[in-house]
Design brief:
single chain, alpha/beta, five-stranded parallel beta sheet, two-stranded antiparallel sheet, 7 helices, 52% helix, globular, binds shikimate-3-phosphate
Length: 181
């Protein structure tokens, strides 16, 4: 008998850059045999361009418009674990989609801890300077909390430990249901 799970609703991981959204969603997907998708990777494939190039060509506004499009697209699919870009909560219409369509998990991290985790900041146009990142992280904190159905503090924890914690929350909330095979 293997542990298989079914997702009843989409799960959106939100949180600041470096929170571990992509790694945790991937890990959880593997341990529960459900599908995951990373919003930025999906967007890059759809547009045939890297996030960095989109920022350079169309600015943050251009990127945000694409991000809203992609969020709507992913929210309409069969339930998935979706790791969102850190800025997804900055647009009101995105917050409405997150709240309406799925279960939102906030992976909480400080800008300082995030800086230690991000190996290559060159791919993140909005994490170029630690002081600016601290300010941005501070500003976004209340937005992450506003949309979150659950918050997991990631400070000092490993990806497997965080994934386990999220799994427990999702099972308890009835979002992730065990299938016996
Ligand atoms: C952004 C976060 C990035 C990416 C883009 C903008 C942000 O995603 O969407 O660079 O505004 O916080 P990650 O949170 O996956 O790094």
């Amino acid at each position: 008998m293997s542990d298989r799970y079914e997702l009843k609703r989409p799960v959106f991981f939100v949180g600041f850059m470096g929170a571990g959204k992509t790694s945790v969603a991937r890990r959880l997907a593997r341990q529960c045999h459900v599908a995951s998708v990373d919003m930025d990777t999906y967007l890059e494939r759809r547009e045939g361009k890297k996030v960095k190039a989109i920022f350079a060509e169309s600015g943050e506004e251009g990127f945000r418009a694409l991000e809203t499009d992609v969020l709507g697209e992913l929210a309409a699919k069969e339930p998935l674990l979706v790791s969102c870009g850190g800025g997804v909560v900055t647009r009101e219409e995105n917050r409405a989609i997150l709240e309406r369509a799925g279960f939102v998990v906030h992976l909480k991290v400080s800008a300082d801890e995030a800086a230690g985790r991000i190996s290559d900041t060159s791919t993140r146009p909005l994490f170029q300077n630690l002081d600016a990142a601290r300010e941005r992280c501070e500003e976004r904190g209340p937005l992450y909390e506003r949309v979150a159905d659950a918050t997991v503090d990631t400070a000092g924890k490993s990806v497997p430990a965080i994934a386990r914690e999220v799994q427990n929350v999702l099972v308890k909330e009835g979002v992730l249901c065990q299938q016996r095979k």
